[in-house]
Amino acid sequence: MSEHLYTYGVVDDDEFELAIEGVDGGTPIRTVSYRSLTAIVSDIDTLEPERSDENVRRHDDVLREVIESADGRTVVPMQFGMVFKSGRTLKSVLRSGRRAFRKALLDVDGMVELGVKIVVDEGATVDDDTVADIAERLAAAAERDVENDLFSDRLCMNRSYLVAYDDQEAFSEAVQAVRDDYEDLTVQYSGPWAPYNFVDIQIGAAQ
Amino acid sequence: MPSTASPNSSSLADVLDRILDKGIVIDIWARVSVVGIEILTVEARVVAASVDTFLTYASEISKIEQATQTGDLDDIQDLEIETTSARKHEQKIEKTRAGVDAS
Description:
Shape of chain A: elongated
Radius of gyration of chain A: 19 Å
Structural class of chain B: mainly alpha
Distance between the termini of chain B: 47 Å
Low-confidence stretches of chain B: 45-55, 72-103
Order of helices and strands of chain B: HEHEHH
Distance between the termini of chain A: 29 Å
Largest interface: A-B, 61 and 52 residues
Number of helices of chain A: 5
Helix content of chain A: 25-40%
Number of helices of chain B: 4
Number of domains of chain A: 2
Strand content of chain A: 25-35%
Strand content of chain B: 5-15%
Largest sheet of chain B: none
Helix content of chain B: 55-70%
Number of strands of chain B: 2
Order of helices and strands of chain A: EEEHEEHHEHEEHEE
Mean pLDDT of chain B: 60
Low-confidence stretches of chain A: none
Structural class of chain A: alpha+beta
Oligomer: heterodimer
Largest sheet of chain A: 5 strands, antiparallel
Radius of gyration of chain B: 19 Å
């Protein structure tokens, strides 16, 4: 019997079902609320879901559907693997962490995350002014931005942008303008994502 | 009408980068305990959780399951200590990284 709850994220007061498969095939995707905070969940048998490519994709796909099914529903995403033993423990955490969840929901209200990476050709270089120009132009089309790791020599920029769901078109135009102006650079543009890079909550417990 | 770029369907690397590393992190103890627990800390992360942390959690989960089955509370008490030391270890790594970046 499925008794545990895999959680994907937290939204403002809501109640809905999505007929898609979640982590470990759990379906439907549904909601569990404590007062005005709602967690997105699906049933799961294990406390330790396998970190398979499929499961990781499904976690992300569910969050995307949560956003898109209400044309820009605000969601604060959980990290992969947040399984609660029962509805009771989940509600307990929603209650205890309500201030942090509420603040996070406000911080990203109506927003999604878009990712932009700039990659240089093999053997080519790029000057700092170019990177600064691109970063500045994209930041101007976003509410907030954060820098991510440059994990390769050829990656000269790796940033995440918090953009209003309704302003994605304008941001995409800014990305296209960068592509047009710097044709020798590869611009990798991804999203929309749940705002993973713009939430910062860790909840611990003690006996 | 200005031309517009469309975001690509996301690569698995992009998905992994976010899902395993970012987002709300809730301690295993808070997720499984029904009675007698007090949630003490709700804090912004000082350091981003890493894959190491995930693996630590994963091993904790199996221990919790074991402890739940056998009813051995000593096992559960050990977990807290391990969590704390794992965090310290992680912060140390992060500091080391920061040092490398600064140099």
